[in-house]
Design brief:
about 35% helix, SPRING1, golgi apparatus, glycoprotein, three-stranded antiparallel beta sheet, mainly alpha
Length: about 200
């Protein structure tokens, strides 16, 4: 009987020892794996998307715009106008079931910069998007991204291509507002360039 108790005691000690050893090894391995992540987080808490992975619109993309099977993303919320990710802007009634503007409609315009000023600010949101999508705007937008990397890491990490960048840039922001309650330029409050709207004369 006494021998049986001793054997059980030894077995329990062995089991507990094994459990303790495995737990200790797990903790050490977990700690070693987490250290580089924590060090990186202190240096760069918001990973910035590299421009090499960024999808820019190019002139060669325009050759595929007549594809009837193509689907498009678009600006969605406009009551009158819609801009699609190919740079077309059209009346909402001329939007196809694919989400693309009907290029055969008279109302459809491509890379339309009507109402946009020399400072790259426009009075109409959809025109701002269409103008911003022009391949010629790539160099300007690269400068915008370069400056924004220092202050808007979270925004940039959620943007993957030219269209998403134009959607975000053309929305009115705090840079379009003065005195917290009025637009700097009510006639051109949608901007995709480096500079905020100019303050309009009273």
């Amino acid at each position: 009987m006494w021998t049986l108790c001793v054997v059980r005691f030894i077995r329990r000690k062995c089991v507990l020892g094994i459990i303790f050893t495995l737990s200790l090894i797990y903790c050490i391995v977990s700690f070693v794996q987490e250290v580089p992540t924590e060090e990186y987080a202190e240096v760069n808490p918001f990973p910035v998307r590299k421009l090499t992975k960024f999808q820019w619109r190019s002139e060669s993309d325009d050759n595929a715009t007549a594809d009837s099977q193509m689907t498009c993303r678009n600006s969605v919320q406009g009551k009158v106008l819609i801009a699609d990710d190919r740079g077309y802007v059209c009346n909402r009634g001329d939007l196809l079931f694919t989400g693309c503007c009907n290029v055969n409609s008279e109302s459809t315009k491509h890379y339309w910069c009507e109402t946009c000023k020399d400072n790259n600010c426009c009075s109409i949101y959809e025109y701002c998007i269409s103008c911003c999508l022009h391949p010629d705007k790539k160099e300007l937008l690269q400068k915008v991204i370069g400056k924004a990397e220092q202050t808007f890491h979270v925004l940039l990490s959620s943007i993957s291509d030219h269209f998403e960048l134009c959607l975000a840039k053309c929305r009115t922001s705090s840079s379009s507002v003065q005195h917290e309650n009025s637009y700097r330029d009510p006639k051109a409050k949608h901007c995709y360039g480096e500079m905020p709207p100019m303050t309009s004369a009273p």
